[in-house]
Fold this sequence. Notes:
- With 150 residues, the chain is of the alpha+beta class.
- The protein is 34% helix and 35% strand.
Amino acid sequence: MKLVFSGRQxxxxxxxxxxxxxxxxxxxxxxxxxxLSGYILTTSRAEWxxxxxxxxxxxxxxLEQTRAAKWDTxxxxxxxQLLPSNFPPRVDILDLPISGALIPYxxxxxxxTLVSSNPPLKCIRVDTTxxxxxxxxxxxxVVTYRGPDQ
Length: 150
């Protein structure tokens, strides 16, 4: 701030130096870069979440298919359609609102293990594997137990 005398009046002249302007521009650029990187990170995380939810829906769909298989130990002859050979690995398109050439796929693998013969009990595990951009491969897993139909 300069004090200039012109006659009997005092006039105050206000202004900023070049250093003050450069510091203000630097602070503004840092704030803008922080907001922009936060926006990019949030968008990427939301997209990853959409992939995860679509893969979870595929895993649940495959689990429901195993739950619908007939397994009746009381029938004559006994029926057991809950076998690993009836549920081979399957590649599906992830149900995402995406347009363009890059269609995301996921592979669902069903593992069925006999836990107990008496009482009959099987463990069903579904692993859905999918990849996201250049961040690697991810797996959604759903596990449940199932007894025979009554």
